[in-house]
Specification:
single chain, 190 residues, 89% helix
């Protein structure tokens, strides 16, 4: 076998190895992109689940607030009843003067406190609702990121295949040029 044939075989072998390496790298990039998409989808599913939990917590906060508000109103009515009984036991007319004012003040302050309980429950629920919306948005972002990762993996695989074909074509062209002298100017040509 002549030296050029040996050089040609060695060069073709090297080009083949480069092409196979590029294709394997591209396939690995595609698999990595698919794995990234699966991970992003799992992250998004978890965010959706946590958003559902936050929705339940918001509803629970409202329900607990209603219960607490109702219990507090009962306590205020009991306090006013105790005041009336105390005034009555002291022979004070419960429907006149300072006795009425004291009961009215207790009712007014009790109502303010009951409304504060309701407002605090609404604020707590609002916090959970904001958290749920944030989690849903994070889930959407994670899903979109997964799509991008998968597309990037496919694009990298395609690019590696094109690069492998280019490597083979360029190497073959170089070998042919070396063997047959393509692109050389004849001696004495300007």
């Amino acid at each position: 076998m002549d030296p050029f044939s040996i050089m040609l075989l060695v060069s073709l072998f090297g080009l083949g190895v480069q092409a196979v390496g590029a294709i394997k790298g591209g396939n690995a990039a595609k698999r990595a992109g698919e794995a990234g998409k699966r991970a992003s989808d799992a992250q998004a599913d978890l965010a959706d689940y946590n958003a559902s939990v936050a929705d339940l917590q918001a509803a629970d906060a409202i329900d607990r607030g209603k219960d607490e508000e109702g219990r507090f109103r009962l306590q205020v009515r009991g306090l006013i009843g105790s005041q009336r009984a105390g005034f009555g036991a002291s022979n004070v007319d419960v429907g006149f003067g300072s006795a009425v004012d004291t009961q009215a003040d207790a009712a007014f302050l009790g109502e303010l406190d009951a409304l504060t309980i309701r407002t605090n429950a609404a604020r707590e629920a609002w916090g959970y609702q904001v958290q749920a919306e944030d989690l849903r948005r994070r889930g959407q972002i994670a899903r979109q990121e997964g799509v991008y990762l998968e597309e990037a993996g496919r694009a990298e695989r395609s690019a590696s295949r094109i690069a492998a074909a280019g490597t083979i074509a360029a190497g073959t062209g170089s070998l042919l040029q070396a063997r047959y002298g393509f692109g050389r100017r004849p001696v004495g040509a300007a």
